Amino acid sequence: MILTGDLIERSVSSGKITIDPFSRDHITTNSYDVTLGNTFIRYVDGLIDVAVKPKTQEIRVSAGEILVMEKGDFLLGHTREKVGSRHFVPVLHARSGIARLGLFVHVTADLIDLGSVGQLTFQLFATRSVAITPNMRIGQVSFWKPYGRRTFYSGKYQGSVGPQVSKIQQDFEKALGQETTCE
């Protein structure tokens, strides 16, 4: 069951859903429009080994400034809003108007774990040159009612602030009992 806009608003008011900052103007028929934060991450190595912490470059863009993504660019961005719930499962999508411009926003890994609360990381891929700016409405989050016993997320991305690089190498480190880094 997906929540309608009025139920999203009521659930934010009652504390069952966290959206902070919250704007009533961002509510749609069955989702909430989220905005783009001001920090971006670019992977710098041509080849990324999933067992090794990747090298990255951080890019900060001030409100009102434009960041041009060239065709083929891949960046990690984030929601300005902190989003999550222990009652509903958030699902993150691009706004259709953004996708129609050739910017893929969070095409994979759109399911946010029950109990996870933080700024959400966008996976941004430009199929053509496109200009983006902080605070623009770029995505939408819908909320779904879970059925069955609830187990809450407490993993490595809990409480995220800003874009989060992949931490998949921690799975390998845990298995090997050591930290791995790029040389």
From TrEMBL:
CDD domains: trimeric_dUTPase (cd07557). It holds the Pfam family DCD. The keyword Membrane does not apply. InterPro entries: dCTP_deaminase, dUTPase-like_sf, dUTPase_trimeric. Keywords: Hydrolase, Nucleotide metabolism, Plasmid. One of its GO terms (molecular function) is dCTP deaminase activity. The keyword Hydrolase applies. It is an enzyme of class 3 (hydrolase). It comes from the Bacteria. Its EC number is 3.5.4.13. PANTHER family: DCTP DEAMINASE (PTHR42680:SF3). This is dCTP deaminase. The lineage of its organism: Bacteria, Pseudomonadati, Pseudomonadota, Alphaproteobacteria, Hyphomicrobiales. The gene is dcd.
